[in-house]
Amino acid sequence: MKNIKICLLGMLTFLAVSCNPELESIYFNEVNPSIFPASEADVESLTLAAYYPLRGSWFDGIHSTSERGLMFMLDATTEILQGPYGVQQIQTLHSYNSTSASVTRFYDDFYNEISTMTLNIDAIENSEVNENYKEIGIAEIKCARGFLAYELFDLYGPLVVAPLEVLENPLIEAPLARLSNDEMVNFIEKDLLDAIEYLPTPEDADYGRFSKGLARMLLIRLYLHEKRWADVETQANAIMAMNYYDLEDDYVGLWDEIAPVDSKEIIFSVPADYAGTSENQWQLMVLPANYPNRGGFGTIQSSWKFYDSFEAADVRKTNLIAEFEGTDGVTYNRSNPGTYMQLGPLPLKIAEDADRNTGLTTVDIIVYRYADVILSKAEALGNKTGVPTQESIDLVNIIRERANLNPILLADFADIDTFNKMILLERSHEYWCENGQYRSDLIRHGKYTEYANELNGISSESEPYKALFPFSLERIAEGKGAFIQNAGYN
């Protein structure tokens, strides 16, 4: 189905906050945990609530395509996006610090959602609803919790994860420390492995909802983060063995106005609509006001360095717009950029959707695709032994063939450094302006600061410690010594 109805369900939210600075209080006058959930409909309500923070919404959706979402803010730390002003420029120059609300807000706005999901899982487990229905609901919530926890872990490193016994006693003040790295990884891994057992297969999952394929894809991202190459390979093989996913012939068509509801390439997509249930603002962010047909705010550009890194025939740069004729009759390009392309081309990526009737679009927000499985396995095979293999090159060539490019040869990438540089380039070309994961790719290979310095020269404020974002001063103060700031931001 095109859209899933994701409701706020404020009266169903089991948040714990009060004296404990890490928590929010349960309002027993609104919900009585002893009688809710009592039906399959109640379980479904709690399940859908777990999708809420993961949708696209400027106000409170982590996959917003605005400056309040992951893709915009993470790709803006790389050569994929550049900001001429505002928070996007802070990202480009890596000048963020512990007072930069634009980066600290992801933790502040979303960490309590993990506690909410923990309480909701417990409520479902203790209900008398049909066991099969409970198992499926809990699996979706665990997938959502692992999903959100991974995304925050990727930004900040280990998080505070409140245990159930603390959440059940919100009036007892108990400042909590962040988990260790191993504890954090184990928490996410267990959620996703548990979810796999009861989530539907890709062919049985409704469009826009979780499946076994997504849980395994998230494990791939977690294992890449930890450089657990053999585990990446195992999960990639498991997804391939499903015999469901495949690449679309038309790369550009994946981001058309017609939702890819039947696409075998989509692992997880956030449906978008004009009503703002889950919104896609990307044309509004990218296109300048004088863009023909329907313009936007023109808040972000790509870089000419990124544009020049593509081979001439690469179809993946189709909507990386290097020239346009404005409504003022002027042609804008690299030679005549005006104030619209002085840093680089317009990173549109998705369909222009010139007939949209608001600043929003119904082009869906694709978060994960099967192409990621292929390139992740290729990277794992090459790095598992430190020697690129013919199989790893063949996998890269599957992606290149769809991009209308000639195959590469193993002989040209015989050492691991050359191979990884090629993998990073292919990943940037394949996934630009999707979920912001290229930042994590650069960090994994020790190139985050190096590439930022090459892009921005003497204006760069990048340092190795900025591979992690800072926590807000408010969170540190409320932690009363138990909550430790990331190194470099003190």
The helix/strand order is HEEHHHHHHHHEHHEEEEEHHHHHH
Strand order within the widest beta sheet: 1-2
Number of E-type strands = 8
What is the average of the pLDDT values?
A: 92
**Gyration radius, in Å:** 22 Å
Counting helices, strands and paired strands, the structural category is: mainly alpha
Helix-residue proportion: 40-55%
Low-pLDDT residue spans: 1-30
Main sheet overview? 2 strands, antiparallel
Strand content: under 5%
Total helical elements: 17
Which word captures the global form? globular
Spatial gap, N to C terminus = 48 Å
Provide tags for this entry.
globular, two-stranded antiparallel sheet, 17 helices, 490 residues, disordered N terminus, mainly alpha, two-stranded antiparallel ribbon, single chain
Report on this model:
It is globular, with a radius of gyration of 22 Å. The N and C termini lie far apart (48 Å). With 490 residues, the chain is mainly alpha-helical. The chain is 41% helix and 4% strand.
Summed up, what is this model?
This protein is mainly alpha-helical. The protein is built from 17 helices and eight strands.
Which secondary structure elements does this structure contain, and how are they paired or packed?
Blueprint: H1 40-51, E1 56-57, E2 61-62, H2 70-75, H3 86-93, H4 101-125, H5 131-156, H6 164-167, H7 181-198, H8 212-225, H9 229-241, E3 266-270, H10 282-286, H11 304-308, E4 320-321, E5 324-325, E6 331-332, E7 346-347, E8 365-369, H12 370-385, H13 390-402, H14 416-431, H15 438-444, H16 448-456, H17 473-478
Antiparallel strand pairs: 1-2, 3-8, 4-7, 5-6
